[in-house]
Amino acid sequence: MKRLSLAVFLLLSSAAFVGAQENAEGAKNAEPSIAWKWANFAILAVGLGYLASKYLPPFFRSRTAEIQQGITEAQQMKRDAEARAAQVEARIQKLGEEIDQFRAQSREEMRQEGERIRQETAKQLGHLEHQAQQEIEAVGKAARRELKTYAAKLALDLAEQRVRERLNSGTETALVDGFIQDLQRRESKN
After folding, report:
1. pTM above 0.70, yes or no
2. Would you say residue 132 lies in a domain?
């Protein structure tokens, strides 16, 4: 800061000196001299050069550092984004594989379930067939018993009818007498 103040002081004092000199000469000449123009230009160029050399390098260095930091951050963000994109892509591929596995597993489970249902149906059909066979046999046995009972009843009715046709009072007396004699013989043996 001291250097800047010194440089400004020197510029102003030289400008004042040149201005005073010109005023003295200006009375002689109405037009400023070419030396004054060059001196003024040189002072201005030196002052601007000094100010530029003092303030512009730190500004450019800080600006360059900010730009480089921004580039570094952008590159890091780009790498992070690429990594995330790769992870998403891997997940998508993995998801496709998982979907294919799920479909294959579902098909296998459906096939197994279908086979289990077929076996269970066959077992149930076999059980129903066996049960129906037993019921048919039971109904057949019952029908045969009923038929035998009916046949026996018919035979008894027919026998009774024939016995009644043959049985008259004489035959009846002979049968009762034969039965009594048979009982008497048995009693005498005992």
Report:
1. no
2. yes
